[in-house]
Amino acid sequence: MSFQKFYTKFGMLLAISIIFTAAAFAQNPNPTATPTVIINQDNREMPIATGNNLYCAGYVQTAPIDTKYEVVGAQDEKDRHIYAQGDLLYVSISAKSGVKVGDMFSVVRPRGKVETRWTNKKNLGFYVQEVGSVEIVAVKREVSVARVKTSCSSLLLGDLLQPIPDRVSPLFKQRPPLDVFGYSVCKTRGRIFMARDGQELLGRETVVYIDLGAEDNVSVGDYLTIFRPLGTGNILDTQQDESVSARDGGFQSDEYRGGKFSNQAARKSGSKANGKVVTTNDAKEGRQEDLRRVLGEMVILNVKEKTATAIITRTASEIHTGDRVELQFK
């Protein structure tokens, strides 16, 4: 290659490089500058619960439920018995009731009286499952046609129509670190007596029902600590004895005779170890009574007469139905 041809190609490559460098500089004239923060992540107002966790959380109430309007048929009822988003249903609400095309209704299913051992309250009420929502698409003389707008569970004939609840989710806010060794600070305490979908082992974003309600002066947005008394709450509730009795001996080798005591033997009382064996239960008797294990935190989403619906927001350990909750100071 001649020097002239080499110089020509080198000049073209240099020109292309200058063009690309200029374009990149135009997009970011100061590449070492700190990027500008458009949204402060700490100050964004984000709801704690949305969608199904807000409008399909369910509730337990004592007040009677309105059974006037229900799902009475479906376009495809000959082929199936369960319905979901997009399906067309017949509902027992007509033009005489004043319903209009575009009106929205919540679809609920009362499941029965709540009976649980995890409360000292009498008659908590009955459980109402929220299964979805429908939109009226045609109004007839005796019935209306509704399209399933959202479905949190399968819809069935016989499900009830209720007004869309006016719910506003609490907003996320900066919280202090969860104090897993915290003491009791409030006398308003209750129990998790049930969870949505019958769950028994609970985690973050699980919807639960507690036996604290309007009569206990709790409200939407209240935070509660989830805890259980120290040493309780295991799935297998067995009391095991110490591994080895303090009276047992013969743990040394035949050759070296290092010592006859097992390293798993219980302590003997007395300043000279000349008293009775101190068992695990003996050691627990003299300690502070309100020691507890903090398991997590929850926020109330909906309040009824004797109960509230809440969502678990933070966990430090596994949580079970039956665990205790305590209202935090507002």
Q: Quickly count the helices.
A: 3
Helix content: 10-25%
3D shape: elongated
User: Structural class given helices, strands, pairing?
Assistant: mainly beta
**Nearest-angstrom radius of gyration?**
33 Å
Give the amount of beta strand, in percent: 25-35%
Biggest beta sheet summary: 7 strands, antiparallel
- SSE ordering: HHEEEEEEEEEEEHEEEE
The total beta strand count reads: 15
* Distance separating the two termini: 84 Å
Q: Which oligomeric state applies?
A: single chain
Average pLDDT over all residues: 86
Can you describe what's shown?
The chain has helices spanning 3-27, 52-55, 280-285, and strands spanning 59-61, 71-74, 88-91, 104-113, 126-139, 144-151, 160-163, 189-195, 201-202, 207-210, 223-229, 292-303, 308-315, 319-320, 324-327. The chain has 330 residues and is mainly beta. Strands 1, 2, 3, 4, 5, 6 and 7 form a seven-stranded antiparallel β-sheet that branches. β5 and β6 (144-151) form a beta hairpin. The termini are far apart.
What's a quick, concise take on this entry?
This protein has 330 residues and is mainly β. 11% of the residues lie in helices and 28% in strands.
Task: Give descriptors for this structure.
mainly beta; 330 residues; 7-stranded antiparallel β-sheet; 28% strand; single chain; 3 helices; 6-stranded antiparallel barrel
Secondary structure layout:
Elements: H1 3-27, H2 52-55, E1 59-61, E2 71-74, E3 88-91, E4 104-113, E5 126-139, E6 144-151, E7 160-163, E8 189-195, E9 201-202, E10 207-210, E11 223-229, H3 280-285, E12 292-303, E13 308-315, E14 319-320, E15 324-327
Antiparallel strand pairs: 1-5, 2-3, 3-6, 4-5, 4-7, 5-6, 8-10, 8-15, 9-14, 10-13, 11-12, 11-15, 12-13
